[in-house]
Amino acid sequence: MKGILFLLKLLLKIAVAPVILVLTLFVWLCAGLVYVSGLVLGLVSMVLGLLGVAVLITYSPQNGIILLVLAFLVSPYGLPLAAIWLLGKVQDLKFAIQDLIYG
Questions:
Q1: Could you report the per-residue pLDDT of 8-43, keeping only the tens digit for each?
Q2: Alpha carbon 19 to its chain's center
Q3: What is the rounded distance in angstroms from the CA atom of residue 94 to the CA atom of residue 84?
Q4: Three-state SS for 20?
Q5: C-alpha to C-alpha distance for 16 and 36, rounded to whole angstroms
Q6: Looking at residue 91, what is its pLDDT?
Q7: Residue closest to 65 by CA, chosen among 54, 81, 80
Q8: CA distance 68 to 65
């Protein structure tokens, strides 16, 4: 009976290994994409922020506020931070599976 239980645990570990590998590669790929997009979106955010302030002062307060909100969304505190949070949750899932299966 002890041998069968050992064999079943070994088969479960072998079956879960590709899932953990895929999750690890996914986290690495997404972390790289978030890093690069954060750099690009930081520059876009700066341009939108400056344009928003200029439009707010000279043309239309409503359009200026819209541009400032868009600048916040593409800034490192907007959508990239949400992507990092979600990526952390995927990594937590990977670690939970590892702890459950491999102990």
A1: 888 889 999 999 999 999 999 999 998 898 889 889
A2: 19
A3: 15
A4: helix
A5: 31
A6: 93
A7: 54
A8: 5
DSSP code string of 61-88: HHHHHHHHHHHHHHSTTSHHHHHHHHHH
Closest by CA position to 102, among listed 44, 16, 42: 16
Nearest residue to 48 via CA among 65, 82, 25, 71: 71
Residue 8: what pLDDT? 87
Q: What is the mean pLDDT of residues 53-57?
A: 92
Q: Kindly report, residue by residue over 68-93, the tens digit of the pLDDT.
A: 999 998 888 888 889 999 999 999 99
> The dihedral of CA 10, 11, 12, 16: what is its sign?
positive
The model carries a pTM of 0.73
- Alpha-carbon distance of 28 to 2, in angstroms, equals 38
Residue type, 100: L
Among 83, 77, 17, 6, residue whose Cα is nearest residue 45? 77
